[in-house]
Amino acid sequence: MTKPRITLVTSAEMPSLYSDEENLLDALSDRGSDPRIAVWNDPGVDWSEAGVCVVRSVSDYASDRAKFLSWADSVPRLLNHADILTWNSDKHYMVDLAARGLPVIPTTWLEPDRHLSKQQVHSRFPAMGDFVVKPAVSSGVRDIGRYTANDTAQRQAAILQAANLLEEGRSVMVQRYIEEIDLHGEVSLVFFNGLVSHSVEKRAVLHPASVTDPSMHEAVVTAEHANEEQWRWGEQIRAIIHDHVRSRLGRDEQFLYNRVDLVPDGKGSFLVMEISMVDADLYLEATPEALGNFADAITVRAFW
Ligand SMILES: Nc1ncnc2c1ncn2[C@@H]1O[C@H](COP(=O)(O)OP(=O)(O)O)[C@@H](O)[C@H]1O
Ligand SMILES: [Mg+2]
Known about the structure:
304 residues; binds magnesium ion; Rossmann fold; D-amino Acid Aminotransferase, Chain A, domain 1; Dna Ligase, domain 1; globular; alpha+beta; 9 helices
């Protein structure tokens, strides 16, 4: 029997997988498949011959989302499915989740087609506390600013950041800075093929009065057994997104991977920071079982 082919998809910017996923090729070979790596926009790749294609370090997708999505549409066996990538690559999905009752971080949306003046942008920022300005299409903690509301210079800087993003035609999210993240961090719950795999805790990454750039994005990640309540939440959220995607697509679609990021809300419950289903960092080195779980999940899909 010929071995099923598996292609792990990367980008020109990060061609050889995330550093903690290097052992994935061996793990997949050990499980009886024929794995390789390919860059998503490499014109030399014949995707019809690529077998099951697993989206990994495509961290550049946000700079040309339309091109990335049209590529995704053209790949016969892509995981996660192109329709999921379309939905999840724009954080407006948070509006859908909020409509389904999920406690997402309250967000004010600034849209480029509204042509807001600087004064109007200013009036949409909170009056007190710290707040965050971030693009709706972005990943890898890029272009995220944290500012203090009643500091005039910082407010000016925030207006400038938002105006620049809007100028580029990008939607902007404004959120209160969730202070609890400084105390408790952010919990990431990772699921493969809809099943619980592992969880980690990430330390807060936004420094006051600054905008992130990719070089500073390395979050400190530690293995953390999420408590039962957190997993219950994670599972509920996973089921809701599954249901939502099913109703959008008109069919069932299993997620190869999804990561649910939660921050404590300071009142004994949680807020959803994001749901990651595109180039999600899956923290495969954070726990002993994570990499094997992912390799198993991919292998199951390749043999389906
Ligand atoms: N409202 C917020 N309050 C506190 N920290 C935030 C907030 N929004 C973003 N962050 C910090 O910035 C990081 C990246 O933001 P996120 O929305 O997850 O975007 P990305 O897709 O770039 O990961 C988060 O992991 C968190 O540390
Ligand atoms: Mg994130």
